[in-house]
Amino acid sequence: MKKYFCIALFLILGGYVNGQQTDCKVMLPGIHGTYTGDCKKGLAQGNGVAQGVDRYEGHFLKGLPDGKGIYRWADGSYYDGEWKSGMLEGKGRMVKGDSVITGYWKANKYHGNKPPVSYKITANRNVQRYTITKSVEVENGVRIKLMLGGKENGEIGDFSLAYTSGSEYSNIGLIGLQNTNIPLDVTIKYTTWNQLHSAQYEVLFELTILESGTWNITLTNM
Predict the structure, then answer these.
(1) pLDDT tens digits, 142-166
(2) Of 112, 143, 171, which residue sits at a domain end?
(3) In this structure, are 55 and 142 located in the same domain?
(4) How far apart are CA 17 and CA 36, in angstroms?
(5) Who's near 162: CB < 8 A, 6+ residues apart?
(6) Other C-beta atoms lying within 10 Å of the C-beta of residue 142
(7) What is the pLDDT of residues 101-150, one digit of tens each?
C-alpha cells in the first residue's frame, strides 16, 4: 500500500510541476505558446524550451531569451548564439538556406566579424594599467577601484568624478555611479604618490561607455 501511495504522490507532484511550467510566461511573441523549463516568479528564467510559431531552446531571463540559445524560425532558418533581453546580441551564427553568417550582433543587427565597440577611452594620463569589464547585473552603473601596485591606493588626493548622468555613491574601497544612462561620459581625476613615495602624479582618465550594464573600472598606478 505504501508503494502505491508513493507512486500516486509522485504523479501528483509531477502534474503540479508541469502545471507550473504551463503557467510560466514567455514574453517574446514568436515563441509564446508552450514552455518547458526553469521558472521564476511566473516568467521563464534559466534553461528551457519555448514553442510558438517559432522555437527557441536555451537560456531565459525574465521571460526573454538571454544568454546562449538556438532560435529556429518557421521557415527553417535559425540563429545559434548569444542573446540579450530577447534580441540577438553578441557572437552567433545565422543560417538561412545556403547562406551562413558568423560574427557579432547588436540589438538584432549584424555588426561584422569583430565585436562592436562597448566603450571608448578618450584620455589617459599617468595610469600605468587599467582594466574595464562588464558584470552580469542588468542595472546601469559604474564601479571604480583605484590601485597602487597590487593594493588599494591609499595615496589619493584631490579626487574628482564627473559624469553625464546618474548619482554617486561610495563603499569600502569603491567609488560608484548608479542609475546612469547610455551613452555615459565619465571623467576621473586625482593625484597620487608612486609606490616609493618619491614622486607625485596628476591622473586623468576619461571614457565614454556605449553599452548598458554595470561596468567595473580599475585604475592602477605604480
Answers:
(1) 999 999 998 999 999 999 999 999 9
(2) 112
(3) no
(4) 10
(5) 185, 186, 187, 189
(6) 24
(7) 999 998 999 999 988 889 999 999 999 999 999 886 778 999 999 999 98
- 140 shares its domain with 39: no
Calpha distance 73→189 (Å, rounded) = 51
Number of compact structural domains in the chain? 2
What range does the domain containing 143 cover?
119-221
Indicate if 17 and 48 belong to the same structural domain: yes
Task: Judge if 85 and 103 occupy the same domain.
Answer: yes
Grid cell 577601484 is found at 145
Q: Do 54 and 38 have their domain in common?
A: yes
Are residues 106 and 124 located together in one domain of the fold?
A: no
Beta bridge partners of 97: none
The gap between the terminal CA atoms of the chain, to the nearest Å, is 75
DSSP 124-187: EES--EEEEEE-S--S-EEEEEEEETTEE---EEEEEEEESSSEEEEETTEEEEES--SSEEEE
- Nearest Cα to 156, choosing from 121, 205, 198, 189? 189
Tell me if the pTM is above 0.90.
Answer: no
Reduced to 3 states, what is the DSSP secondary structure of residue 118? Answer: coil
Model confidence pLDDT, tens digit, residues 9-48: 444 444 434 433 458 999 999 999 999 999 999 999 999 9
End of a domain among 45, 77, 112? 112
